[in-house]
Amino acid sequence: MKKNKSIQYIVSYDKVILICYLSLCLIGILMMLDITSMQSMSMFYHHLVYLIFSIAVLGIIFYFLDLEKLRPLNILWIILSIALLILVLIYGSTVKGGKRSIRFGPLSIQPSFLARLALIFFYAGFLAKKQDIINTTNFPELLKELAPLLVYTAIIFVLIFMEKHLSTLIVGSATLLGMLYYAGLRKRFVLAIIIVGLIAGIFIINKGDEFRSARIETYKVYSLFNPHRPEPGNSPDEYQVRESLTALTSGQIIGTGVARGRAKHNFLPEARTDYVYSIIGEEFGFIGAIIVLGLHALLFFRILKIASEQDNLYYKYLCVGIALNIFLNVLLNTGVAMSLLPPTGNTLPFISYGGTALLIDSMSIGVVLNISAKRRQL
Hints:
Blueprint lengths: L7 E5 L2 H22 L4 H24 L2 H4 L3 H18 L1 E3 L2 E7 L2 E3 L1 H19 L1 H4 L4 H7 L1 H16 L3 H17 L4 H21 L2 H13 L13 H16 L24 H33 L4 H25 L17 H18 L1 E4 L1
Helix pairs in contact: 1-2, 1-13, 2-15, 4-5, 4-8, 5-8, 5-9, 5-14, 5-15, 9-14, 12-13, 13-14, 14-15
C-alpha cells in the first residue's frame, strides 16, 4: 500500500504584510471609483476584476507553491520574459511613442513588469549559489562567474529600452544593484557599476529621444529644489508640474474632500496612474498622503525584516529584491508627484490603475507571505 503524503498547513505568517497589502488595495479601489466616476466607469470595473484576480493569485502562491521546488524553473521564466518582450516590439500597440503592452484576447499585459520580477528570482537563485565568490574574487574572475547573470540582464534591459520604458530600467537597475550590494559585492565594484550607469543615463537623455531631455529641462526649472522657479508654462510637462503641485498644495492638512476635488476633472493628465498620489494629497490632505506613504514604508521594512530572519539565502535575496522593487516604485511615483523627480511614467503600487503592475506586485506579496509562513505537517 502506498503511504499517504503528509499534509502541511500554515500555523502562522506575517499578518502585518497582509494587512498593509489589503489596506493599500482598498485605498486603490476607492481612488479608482473616485477618479473614474469622472471619466469612465468601465475603467473601475476593469481595475476591480484585475484586483480580484490578483488577490486570488496571491492566495495560490501563498498557500500552495513550494518556492524551493520551483527554483529550477527560474531560467524558463527569464526565457519567457525575453520572448514576450520581443513579441511586444513586433506586435505590441504603440502608446505615447513607446511599445510596452501586448494584447492576448481581452487581456493586455506589459511584459517589462514580468521581466523585472523574473530577474529578481534569477538573481536570488544565482547569488545564493555563488555567495562564496561574491565578496572574495577579483574583478576579472567575478565577471567570468557572473557572466550568465550579466548576459540575461543585458538582453532584457536592451529590449525594455527599445520599448522606451525608461522608468522600468531605472527601478530594475537599482533593485538588482541593491541585491548585489546586500549579497556582499564589494563597494568599489558597486561604485563602478553606479558610475557606468550614470554615464549611460546621461548619454541616453542627451542623445536619445527629445522628450526625455525636455522633461529634464522642465524639471531643472520647475523642481521644488529650485528656489527661483517661475510659473509653469503651457507645454505638457510644465502643465503636469503645475497641476500636480496645485493639487497637492490645495489639500493642506485634511484635504478638500472627495466632492471638492478639482484635479480629477481632467485638469491633471494621467490622474488614475502616474499622478494618483496628487489626487490623494488634494482630497485627503497631508494626513491621507502620509498614511499611504507610511503603509508602503511599513510594508518595505517588514519585508526586510522577513529577509533578515531567513537562513535560506535564496529566500533572503528574494525578499530583498521584492522589497526594493516595490518601494523604489513608490519613491519614484511620489517623487514625481511632488516635483522632486522628473516625470517618468511610473505607477503607485497597489493603488494606481493598471492590471499588469497590480498582478505582479500581488504575486510578489504572495511570495513574501509564503516565505514568512510557518508550516506544520499532519
